[in-house]
Amino acid sequence: MKKAAVLMDNGFEELEAMGPIALLKRAGIAVDLVSAANLREGTGRFGIIYSPMIPMDLYDFSQADALIIPGGPHYALLEKNPKALEVIREAWNNPNQIVGAICAAPTILGHMGLLEGKNYTCFTSMNEDFKGSYKEQGTVTDGKLITGRSAGYSIDFAYALIEALLGKEKLDQLKASIYVK
pTM of the full predicted structure? Predict the structure, then answer.
């Protein structure tokens, strides 16, 4: 079974977390919610509490097939957290792990120099000169990097993650199971 780790701190964007989490689980992917603040629960931008979460210091990220970073104001906390940055760098350097980031979260990758030479998207006003190729699209996949533009693209972002982890056939099966015909 494939596994995804969702790295969050207080202030994450709920839609960018829950949409992908729910769809990944529907697709049969195990999902672990990991607290960069090393807490057992996390509070989203609009006060929704996610529990249980696994404290980052207790989590083995090498067991995950994907590291997913939702956007939201928590991106600033993640950027100031040396351990979170180390986790992101290790996932980036692991050829077997997908790195997914949506909305504000790709900015973290950009500041780390990881978007250089890559096709990506992020929340438009947060795009800086990351020395990559910014695309005004809902989602962009470039190798093991999957980025989403904003909360409105959370479902498309989840679909891109599922396709990368399980393939197009499994994604099509999932879509057929959730759309009314």
Answer: 0.97
